[in-house]
Amino acid sequence: MTAMTSTPGASRDGRPLLNSRLAEFGTTIFAEMSALAVATGAINLGQGFPDTDGPEEVREAAVRALRDGRGNQYPPGPGVPELRAAIAAHQERRYGLTFDPDLEVLVTAGATEAIAASLLALVEPGDEVIALEPYYDSYAASIALAGGTRVPVTLRPDEDTGATDAPGGAGAGRRFTLDLDELRDAVTPRTRLLLLNTPHNPTGTVLSRAELAEIARLAVEHDLLVVTDEVYEHLVFDAPGHLPLATFPGMRERTVTISSAGKTFSFTGWKVGWVTAPPDLVAAVRSAKQFLTYVSSGPFQYAVAEALALPDAYFTAFLDDMRAKRDLLASGLAAAGFAVHRPAGTYFVTTDIRPLGQEDGIAFCRALPERAGVVAIPNAVFYDHRDAGAPFVRFAFCKRTSVLEEAVARLKSL
Question: What are phi and psi of 344, to 5 degrees?
């Protein structure tokens, strides 16, 4: 993965200032494209953050915690007991997974820290980590910091899984699929860990029960650890909904499950994430985490504990709202001439720009703010195999309906 922008130079003795493990990473694509949005006044459908706050009762819970002096000083290292209990209750209520809140739950500074701490704790230099590409950019950086070797297995668009969205049509859309034979072939005696993300950012793919079952069988057969990023667990648009890998046979004892509050409750700035896993895995991750942030988000932890206990009606309404926004943006993108991969999960739509006569997603995204007044993210930056991701561009639909309507209107100029 190549940096999008410049990295620090060299010191007086000629040695690079940046740690060699991070030499390939520069300023993230999100920073670059968000700066373009500000400079051009474009609508930012690049970075995945909502443009409205989440439930008022959750925000007020944070205010109460601040005023009551709860969390204003260092909270407990593993997280406040109320939140750990709420996380355990959520896992049991939703998925039938039981976790001891004292030994099997760890609160982190968002899912990004949970991923970093997990890989720093569990990966030794030289270990191979298999990740499904395209992947969120922090995966590659975290593997590098741990000294591991990333082994990408590429999700590829299947042209035959459904109709391409046509202008004005609903269309099932195409799906990015996992080649299970390629995954099996990627495992070597040096493989330590599988790093998965489902629902998958940026493609919107949700791994099927059959795919997850085969991943579980492979992990058990080769005695692999698995880290699963499940932050979009409440954004699966079709039955049967989210299927945690830890529910599959032989997986609970070897899986570190990661999630967070930001994507579900629309408070991304609070940075409250968590890990659920067996005691030995949680202890290992906590050993690394304590030297990253140690603790964070004290008052917000109490608010997220209340958020996780919201009635099912909240989660249903949240999903319905995002589904409507997905359909609005997907249909608008199709009408503008993109080939659309309608997502089964997350709040991102991946498009193919080749029907527009374009093949370079990076150049297309850099020009798009001036051409159409909209910012998107080129998927190529999430690939080791850049050519595989070159024509794909991601748009976020976690915005107000009026903003999406204006973006769709602007994109018609293409």
Answer: -85, -15
Q: Answer whether 377's CB lies under 8 Å from 28's CB.
A: no
Q: What is the DSSP string of 325-377?
A: HHHHHHHHHHHTT-EEE--SBSSEEEEE-GGGT---HHHHHHHHHHHHSEE-E
Q: H or E element: which one contains 229?
A: strand 225-229
Say if CB 273 and CB 111 are below 8 A apart: yes
Nearest residue to 288 via CA among 73, 114, 136: 114
The owner of tokens 């529910």 is 247
C-alpha of 100 from chain center: 26
As a whole number of angstroms, the distance between CA 260 and CA 264 comes to 8
Other CB atoms within 10 A of residue 320 CB: 11
Q: What is the pLDDT of residues 114-169, one digit of tens each?
A: 999 999 999 999 999 999 999 988 999 999 999 999 999 999 998 643 334 433 33
Mean pLDDT of the 230-241 span: 96
Q: How far apart are CA 34 and CA 43, in angstroms?
A: 10
Three-state secondary-structure class, residue 393: strand
Give pLDDT tens digits for 276-332: 999 999 999 999 999 999 999 999 999 999 999 999 999 999 999 999 999 999 999
Q: What angle do CA 282, 247, 126 make, to 5 degrees?
A: 50
Element spanning 227, H or E: strand 225-229
Measure the CA dihedral 131/154/234/106, to 10°: 0
Question: Do 252 and 277 contact (CB within 8 A), yes or no?
Answer: no
Would you say 346 and 199 are in contact if contact means Cβ atoms under 8 Å apart?
yes
Alpha-carbon separation of residue 268 from 52, 214, 247, 302 (angstroms)? 11, 33, 27, 15
Which of 89, 121, 120, 122 minimizes the C-alpha distance to 104?
89
- Widest Cα–Cα separation across the chain: 62
Edge-first strand listing for the sheet containing 128-133: 105-108, 273-276, 255-260, 225-229, 191-197, 128-133, 149-154
Residue of 230, 183, 236 lying closest to 347 (CA atoms): 236
Q: What SS3 state is found at 247?
A: helix
